[in-house]
Amino acid sequence: MILNNILDIVIILLILVSIIAMLATVIGFIRLPDELTKIHAAGVTGSFAVELVLIAGFVYFYRYLHVLEFKFFLAIGFLFLAAPVSAHMISISAIIYNKHVYSKNEKDEAKKVLEDIEKLNK
C-alpha cells in the first residue's frame, strides 16, 4: 500500500519536472538570440523532458498494469543517443552555411570550426 502511494508520487513528480523542463525549452527557444543557442535549448531540455515522461510511463505501467515494459527503456536509450547527435549535426550545418553566431565578446567563434572542417576536407 505504501509502495503504491510512493509510486504515484514518483509519477506525479516526474511529470511535473518534465513540464517545467518543457516550459524552460519553450522560454529558451523564444528568448535566445540565434539558431545555435536555440538548438541547444531544444536539444538538451527537450530530450530531458521527453525522457522523464517515458520514465513516468514506465512506472505507470508497472504500478497499474503490473507489466515491465522495456520498450520505454529502448525509447529512452534511443533519445539519449539520437537527440544530442542530431542537435550537433544541425548546429554544424548552421555553421557551415555561415549562419550568424551570437557572441557577447564580438569574436567569430565559428571561424575555428570552419577552419577545422576545411582541414578535414583536404
From TrEMBL:
Main location: membrane
Organism of provenance: Gemella haemolysans M341
Family matches, as InterPro entries: PhaG_MnhG_YufB
Gene Ontology MF terms: sodium:proton antiporter activity
Domain of life: Bacteria
Name listed for the protein in its UniProt record: Monovalent cation/proton antiporter, MnhG/PhaG subunit
Keywords: Antiport, Membrane, Transmembrane, Transmembrane helix, Transport
Record's bilayer topology term: Multi-pass membrane protein
A Pfam cross-reference name: PhaG_MnhG_YufB
Keyword Transmembrane helix: yes
Localization terms from the record: Membrane
Residues annotated as transmembrane: 6-30, 42-62, 74-97
Any one annotated GO CC term: membrane
Similarity-based family: Belongs to the CPA3 antiporters (TC 2.A.63) subunit G family.
